[in-house]
Write a structure and sequence with these properties.
2 domains, binds pyridoxal-5'-phosphate, seven-stranded mixed beta sheet, 16% strand, Aspartate Aminotransferase, domain 1, Aspartate Aminotransferase, domain 2, 356 residues, single chain, alpha/beta, four-stranded antiparallel beta sheet
């Protein structure tokens, strides 16, 4: 018997999450990172701010300035309590841990963010993926039937959805919140690019948690996510979040970053503009099926996803091939919106492959 045999069999049979290894000089359009770096003068200012951060001391995420800045910036309702996570990934994990009683189930539309399923499996919970419709809209009848049948302790709804890009109809999400016997997490990782949000309901609906992150709006490297909900619910979450889960440098950098709201908003608007420009341009190619997106990426169905992935790779562009990850994503790819010249480079390859 080897010492490794002490490890849970399900973990031994898993494979580690592969973070893409990107060759130098590549255009990275696989992970919804922002293409906009801070200008030099802002970087210098950030350096001065970080030099003052008290790294000698443990952080106190509950009283740090960032929480108030997030409340003010995003108008989180006064009724809501807010807790920070080391990326919203950590909050997804802890929310799953919160309900991990024997026999509890986690439910989400499918395809959606893979970490909902992965975390359910970590805690030994059954995961129910309710298929979307063929056009990636939500099948509300199927969702309500599954909620009724399985009585999930936790429902995740990515709003807008990843990896499909669309935002589900608000009334459908509301109907699920009303019908669910347990907690409903509305994950707004792409909220900044969306035309709608549930953040204004945080703290007002007992079983609702709204998750947000700074990752998709320019600060993926900081690992800052936050969950908002009623004080009663967030208080339970606080019990199982490690006391020092955040770090002083990230907290200080995020607080600094959010002072430059116009810069952030301008970048978001540029990406939304580019997203629509790309979609319109794609209509010239009958071989490509595009889907509406309220996120900073487009999901497309092409004749051969692997061939497109390879061709873009030859042009030093990395995208995400979704083919094989879910039956509904047959021959689909996901392309993050980048700088106009990045998007132009993608369009040139698409023209080469699918132009007449
Ligand atoms: C990217 C993403 C996250 C993870 O965000 P982090 O804050 O970087 O951990 C969560 N949910 C969805 C739907 C995402 O696409």
């Amino acid at each position: 018997m080897s010492h490794l045999d002490c490890i849970r069999n399900d973990i031994r049979n898993m494979r580690a999450y592969q973070v893409a290894d990107v060759p130098a000089g590549f255009i990275k359009l696989d992970a919804m990172e922002s293409p906009y770096d801070y200008p030099e003068d802002m970087k210098k200012e950030l350096g001065r701010t970080l030099a003052e951060a008290p790294i000698r001391l443990y952080p106190n995420p509950a009283t740090c300035g960032l929480l108030q800045v997030l409340r003010d910036t995003y108008q989180i309702p006064d009724e809501a309590d807010v807790v920070l996570g080391n990326g919203s990934d950590e909050l997804i994990e802890r929310l799953t841990m919160l309900v991990s009683k024997p026999g509890a189930k986690v439910l989400a539309p499918a395809p959606s963010f893979v970490m909902y399923r992965v975390n359910a499996e970590f805690f030994g919970l059954e995961f129910i993926g309710v298929p979307l419709r063929e056009n990636f809209t939500m099948d509300l009848d199927a969702m309500l039937a599954a909620v009724k049948e399985h009585q999930p302790a936790l429902v995740f709804i990515a709003y807008p959805n990843n990896p499909t890009g669309g935002r589900f109809a608000r009334e459908k999400v509301q109907a699920i919140i009303d019908a669910a016997p347990g907690i409903v997490v509305v994950d707004e990782a792409y909220g900044a690019f969306s035309s709608d949000s549930f953040l204004g309901e945080a703290g007002k609906i007992p079983n609702l948690v709204v998750l947000r992150t700074l990752s998709k709006i320019g600060f993926a490297g900081l690992r800052i996510g936050y969950a908002s909900g009623t004080p009663a619910l967030i208080n339970e979450l606080k019990k199982i979040i490690p006391p020092y889960n955040m770090n002083q440098l990230s907290l200080a950098a995020a607080e600094f970053a959010l002072q430059y709201r116009p810069f952030i908003t301008e970048n978001i608007n540029k990406l939304k503009g580019e997203r629509e420009r790309m979609r319109t341009a794609l209509h010239a190619y009958p071989a490509i099926r595009d889907f509406p997106s309220e996120a900073n990426f487009l999901t497309l169905r092409v004749p051969d996803a692997k061939a497109l992935f390879d061709k873009l790779y030859e042009h030093n562009i990395l995208i995400k091939n979704l083919h094989g990850t879910h039956p509904l994503l047959d021959q689909c790819v996901r392309i993050t919106i980048g700088l106009p010249e990045h998007n132009q480079a993608v369009l040139a390859v698409l023209a080469e492959m699918y132009g007449s």
